[in-house]
Write a structure and sequence with these properties.
heterodimer; A: mainly beta; six-stranded mixed β-sheet; five-stranded antiparallel β-sheet; B: 116 residues; seven-stranded mixed β-sheet
Chain lengths: 114, 116
């Protein structure tokens, strides 16, 4: 069964600190992995997409890594800001494609405190 | 429009009533998806449209749920005889082409449905 597990479920850190969110998956055959940011009361917004051949990709203060061998991804946030408070969702697609070719994690709820 | 628009943003309804949720996708996006997000749960796929046809309805949880899309644009998700377990945020997304492999899907802000 295709599964995406995210950890931690929730995280509270002080403004300016770094943090790392984890995503482990068992989706097969793997196509790509996306990290989404979902602000409270808003829809998810894509941060980055990782394909099989990519190990690291950065988007500003966000850096995603992918280890296709261990089926793990991480999202590292540097010098956190209050606006980073949100849910971060890991989404893995399998190469069967289609709308149901996606497996969503339950997300990590991140709170940045001043 | 500039983004995916959903209405209403919030809906409170009595158990047993019917509700209609609307999604207005990004202009030109042929693919449209409906998802449901319950409290503390991940996104649950409901239905997918390519143009006006729905090749995948596998996620609809019961026959009380139906959806249509007209003119390759606006979509309506209808829930009949609502139950309390239908309470959730209903998210709509659209993408330029079919499938998530090669393109990004853009989400609306969601409709928060509360059945009392």
């Amino acid at each position: 069964k295709n599964q995406v597990e995210q950890s931690p479920q929730s995280l509270i850190i002080l403004e300016g600190k770094n943090c790392t969110l984890q995503c482990n998956y068992t989706v097969s055959p793997f196509s790509n992995l996306r990290w989404y940011k979902q602000d409270t009361g808003r829809g998810p917004v894509s941060l980055t997409i990782m394909t099989f051949s990519e190990n690291t990709k950065s988007n500003g203060r966000y850096t995603a890594t992918l280890d296709a061998d261990t089926k793990q991804s991480s999202l590292h946030i540097t010098a956190s800001q209050l606006s980073d408070s949100a849910s971060y969702i890991c989404v893995v697609s399998h190469s069967g494609g289609g709308a149901d070719g996606l497996t969503f994690g339950k997300g990590t709820h991140l709170i940045i405190q001043p | 429009g500039a983004g995916v628009s959903q209405s209403p943003s919030n809906k409170v309804t009595e158990k047993g009533k019917d509700v209609e949720l609307r999604c207005d996708p990004i202009s030109g996006h042929t693919a449209l998806y409906w998802y449901r997000q319950s409290l503390g749960q991940g996104l649950e796929f409901l239905i997918y449209f390519q143009g006006n046809s729905a090749p995948d309805k596998s996620g609809l949880p019961s026959d009380r749920f139906s959806a249509e899309r007209t003119g390759g644009s606006v979509s309506t998700l209808t829930i009949q005889r609502t139950q309390q377990e239908d309470s959730a945020v209903y998210l709509c997304a659209s993408s330029l082409v079919e499938g998530w492999m090669n393109t990004e899907a853009f989400f609306g802000q969601g409709t928060r449905l509360t059945v009392v």
